[in-house]
Amino acid sequence: MSSPQPEQPRPDPPSITADGIPLTPLIDGVVLRQQRPIEDRRGEVLEVYRPSWGVHPDPLVFVYQVRIRPGAIKGWVIHARQDDRLSIITGALRWALYDDRADSPTRGRVNDLVVSDRTPALLIIPRGVWHAVRNIGTVDAIFLNMPTQPYDHAAPDKARLPIGTARIPFDFDDGPGW
Prior knowledge:
The protein is mostly beta strands. It has no helices and 12 strands. The two termini are about 30 Å apart.
């Protein structure tokens, strides 16, 4: 009986351009707009959302804040009538997105995105895209959601799947990395 061959090293594929632009394509309709704080001797200002950016056609109608404890996961959720427009305030969040829309050119695509207060961004998730989020930091993470429709207490626009569902090819517990 022969002994198993040692595992051979594999080169990393490129993940960003020389200008720092990610090579992984986003799901159709997803927007990740990097934000730049304006800093001076007193502190900083970070614009969260401005219609003139042209990243979403719908008006601002509702805003709420979400806090996630370290290590906690929220999701999988999907909306039929609203898009989410998210801005991270504090902490580090790993967003998993899965496109299961029948008519989408990116059906079956998964996006694995990390956004934090060190890399502020506006993340837009279109209706019909499954999403989940995990706090990968050591402190509570806070984000704002500016959905395209106010919350409807009588008929919430939210459906759920369990975090370990076989329907979505993503696992937050994907090992320690390299």
